[in-house]
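Narrative of accomplishments. A recurring question from our advisory board has been how the design workflow behaves on a single, concrete structure rather than in aggregate. To address it, we present the structure tokens for one chain from the evaluation set, followed by the sequence designed for it. No filtering or post-editing was applied between the two.
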């Protein structure tokens, strides 16, 4: 059985993007992304705040390098994946498959 893993999130770039290249030669553009909204839950308004690392890989990473700055508003479509930092602490990362400026 295969499960779905897709997320569409609108928000703002909050830390400068960094372009890196993996040992396999794949470009990766990483940036921190903030989302704020008001959602309905159990009939009540709830403030939602999400800060997440976004990674865009491949040829599009280079194309977006000069397009993204702190304050750029985007809609990011992609999938979630878990990574561990050097201390073994797990984090969710949004792997972008599409970026759209809003």
């Amino acid at each position: 059985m295969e499960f779905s893993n897709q997320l569409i999130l609108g928000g703002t770039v909050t830390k400068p993007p960094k372009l890196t290249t993996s040992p396999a030669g794949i470009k990766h553009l990483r940036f921190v992304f903030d989302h704020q909204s008001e959602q309905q839950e159990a009939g009540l308004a709830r403030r939602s705040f999400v800060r997440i690392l976004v990674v865009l890989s491949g040829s599009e990473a280079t194309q977006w390098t000069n397009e993204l700055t702190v304050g750029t508003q985007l809609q990011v479509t992609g999938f979630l994946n878990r990574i561990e930092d050097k201390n073994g602490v797990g984090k969710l990362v949004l792997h972008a498959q599409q970026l759209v400026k809003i």
